[in-house]
Specification:
Elements: H1 3-10, E1 30-32, H2 34-42, E2 47-53, H3 60-71, E3 76-79, H4 81-87, E4 95-99, H5 107-116, E5 122-126, H6 132-145, E6 149-153, H7 162-167, E7 177-180, H8 183-192, E8 196-200, E9 217-221, H9 230-235, E10 238-240, H10 253-268
Parallel strand pairs: 2-3, 5-6, 5-9, 6-7, 8-9, 8-10
Antiparallel strand pairs: 1-4, 2-4
Helix pairs in contact: 2-3, 6-10
């Protein structure tokens, strides 16, 4: 793939133990208060996630928030009051949303553009990768390697904030990210579009070096805690592992992603 062509496309818009850090929320990325959150969503801001108080009773304003969030496909999580209070001690009224640092793109549009250019799709699907630094490092490697897009779930993924942008060294300004409601349905769509889905897991019999990655491919990388979920493994076309020779039987997920992605590049070049 020519580098200049890849750049044009990109401008379209479990291998380790869990290593959690909880970044301190940046007030510039956070909006709180029911009416303020409603107006932020209506204004067309890209919302990374919306936290709503679990025990909060029904009210016309809260019902409006739920309706607006649903209409704009905003991921909603019901959480206890204590979690909201840990984020801010100000009067949040039971609702806090985080504004995404990027705009998500349509997976359909990405695939259409890649196929129209006569290129071979390479996508990375990240299953519940929650560490912001891992996510940023993966994005940096993916952009350097010419991956056409990252695919993440609408819930249970790292927040794409200033820390993620910084860790990616700005790669997230160029690399499209697709946010999907149901990853199982997404895998089926990818397969129907002619891509093979390869799940990278230590439970595989084949090495990543034994799998043909030259054709249209989507790679699944699993969470820091427990790898790829079983329902996604069952739907994958191929399972592959990175050979381990030393005493430690796992790699950090961002490092593992680099190994796998560059094996794809090696085979294609």
């Amino acid at each position: 793939m020519e580098n200049r062509d890849r750049r044009k496309i990109n401008r379209g818009e479990g291998f380790s133990k869990k290593h959690f850090t909880t970044p301190k929320p940046d007030n510039k990325e956070m909006v709180f208060g029911i009416r303020a959150v409603i107006e932020t969503i209506k204004a067309g801001q890209e919302i990374d996630k919306l936290l709503m108080q679990r025990e909060l009773g029904s009210s016309p304003l809260m019902a409006e928030l739920v309706q607006v969030a649903h209409a704009h496909n905003v991921p909603v999580s019901k959480v206890p009051l204590e979690k909201l209070d840990r984020i801010t001690r100000k009067n949040h009224q039971g609702a806090i949303c985080f504004i995404s640092a990027i705009r998500y793109v349509s997976l359909h549009n990405i695939l259409s553009e890649v196929f129209e250019k006569g290129q071979t799709p390479l996508l990375l699907l990240l299953d519940r990768i929650t560490d912001v630094r891992n996510f940023g490092a993966i994005a940096r490697t993916a952009e350097c390697a010419g991956v056409h897009a990252l695919i993440i779930p609408s819930k249970g993924a790292a927040q794409i904030n200033a820390d993620a942008i910084k860790t990616s060294s700005g790669a997230l300004n160029f690399l499209p990210v697709c946010r999907e409601e149901n990853l199982r349905d997404t895998l089926q769509y990818l397969q129907q579009s002619g891509l093979q889905v390869v799940a990278c897991t230590e439970k595989a019999d084949k090495s990543i070096y034994e799998v043909d990655l030259a054709g249209p491919t989507a790679i699944i990388m699993g969470s820091e805690e427990d790898g790829i979920s079983q329902d996604l493994i069952r739907k994958a076309d191929q399972l592959a592992k990175i050979p381990m020779i030393g005493n430690i039987a796992s790699l950090n997920v961002s490092v593992a992603t680099g190994v796998v992605v560059y094996e794809v590049i090696r085979q294609r070049t």
